[in-house]
Amino acid sequence: MSHLLSKSKYIRGLQCDRALWLDVHNPRLAKYTREQMQRFDRGREFEYAFKATFPQGIDISDELKRNVDAYPELTAQLLDRLHTPSPLRGTPPNLGGEQRDTIADNNFGSSPKLGEGDRREAVVEECATPVVLFEAGFIFDDVLVLADVVKQNPDGTLDIYEVKSGNTLSETYKRDAALQHYVISHCREVHTFNIVYSGIDDFVTTDLTEELAACHDEIEKNIATMKEIIRGGEPATPTGQHCIEPYACPYQHYCAQGVRQMSLFG
User: Do 19 and 31 share a domain, yes or no?
Assistant: First the structure.
């Protein structure tokens, strides 16, 4: 399933209509400074360091690379395995229930030393093992988000960790997280949504679940507006302070060129 918006495009759209439109229709015009690229690298390094605290994590991007539209399907498959006993995970789906039961009996607990009660306890113990995914994909309302770290609890609910390399909890971080909460909570039950940022000596984790849930109505309206922008023509948004705040826009040179042309020939 393809998507119209991602979290990066959504944040871009909050800053500037024209930048959002260019991000979708002409992203090759974007130019990033060396300082911006270095900041991206620092962010990735901090994210990798946090992910290293989950050695059992499965990285969706290792399997699917740039095929991001396939991330939600693989994510769902991996999360759904939590409540599926292992003997049934490899069972062909076209077999009847009786045949599946036979395969399950043959593949699990066949040792005479393992009783029926022991087999049930073994299944529960395996299913209680948390599933941790990196770059887990979720899609809703034509918006695709990739969550940095998703930990599934034994009851199936999710703990989400969005990792940011800054040392303060900025409003931009919250807007990014709010969009993710909106999308993910329409796909799965979210237990907690946390932003992880840099402390003096360690990671700082802040649970913003309730605050983010309260933003859903606003996000729904923003998404509807951004879809209209994407499907329309290039907006004639004038340059201004929004070109540099909260982030320096990679399309500044393009828009500035248009301003110079207007001043010369207007």
Answer: yes
Counting DSSP H helices and E strands in the chain, the numbers are: 12, 7
Considering the domain architecture, whether residues 93 and 213 belong to the same structural domain is answered as: no
Distance CA 263, CA 91 (A): 69
Whether residues 122 and 145 fall in one domain: no
**Domain limits for position 245:** 5-83+131-265
Does residue 246 have a cis peptide bond before it, meaning omega lies within 30 degrees of 0?
A: yes
Same domain, 58 and 188: yes
**pLDDT tens profile 34-47:** 999 999 999 999 99
Cut 0.90: pTM above it: no
> Given the DSSP bridges, would you call strands 143-152 and 131-140 parallel, antiparallel or unpaired?
antiparallel
Residues in a beta bridge with 37: none
Lowest pLDDT segment from 59-73, 125-139, 164-178: 125-139
Mean pLDDT of the chain: 83
Phi-psi region of 156 (alpha: psi -120 to 50; beta: other; left: phi over 0): left
Rounded CA separation 93/76 (Å) = 17
96-127 pLDDT, tens digit each: 333 333 323 333 232 333 344 443 343 334 44
Task: Write the single-letter amino acid at 115.
Answer: G
- In one-letter notation, the amino acid at residue 195 is I
Q: How many domains does the chain have?
A: 2
